[in-house]
Specification:
single chain; about 160 residues; alpha+beta; 2 domains; 4 helices; disordered N terminus
């Protein structure tokens, strides 16, 4: 029980540190990618069964997720954001939408994984596979439709 409390506290401290780092000097997409990636990396690290390594795995997972998520967020240009929004607006849950950005050379595949209603409108969880500078990366996220019809990523997945 004490170990779970320590590992949960370490995870929350890592997420707080990532969120703090993400708030200055980075673009919005990169910040969101860093937060989502860091949180998911920390959660994966928490799955390590060996109590002696769990805290280290949480920290390593959080830091790795931050780098990967930030890289994807940074690599997306306006065209990629529009294509992601179009996918979230028009593609059924479980169906993928892929594109290649000839300007950046990056490839993206977005799959809406669930849809739910909130008081302000629909939200969708999704997964994104990206090939950025030849490296494969995977990110999970949540986006909600705004009153103007655009989709805004939130800081949770």
């Amino acid at each position: 029980m004490r170990t779970n409390l320590i590992s949960n506290a370490a995870f929350l401290a890592c997420v707080a540190a990532v969120t703090g780092c993400a708030s200055s000097g980075y673009g919005t997409n990169e910040r969101v990618g860093m937060v989502i990636g860091g949180a998911l990396g920390g959660l994966l690290g928490d799955q390590v069964q060996d109590r002696n390594w769990r805290t280290a795995a949480i920290v390593a997972g959080t830091m790795t997720g931050t780098v990967v998520g930030g890289s994807i967020g940074r690599s997306m240009d306006e065209t990629d954001r529009l294509r992601t929004g179009q996918t979230l607006e028009t593609v059924r849950t479980g169906v993928s939408s892929s594109w290649h950005n000839p300007r950046t050379g990056n490839d993206f595949t977005v799959v809406p994984t669930s849809t739910y209603e909130t008081s302000t409108g629909p939200c969708r969880q999704y997964s994104m596979d990206a090939v950025v500078e030849g490296r494969k990366q995977k990110v999970y996220g949540t986006a909600c439709r705004q009153s103007d019809g655009t989709w805004r990523m939130s800081n949770g997945a």
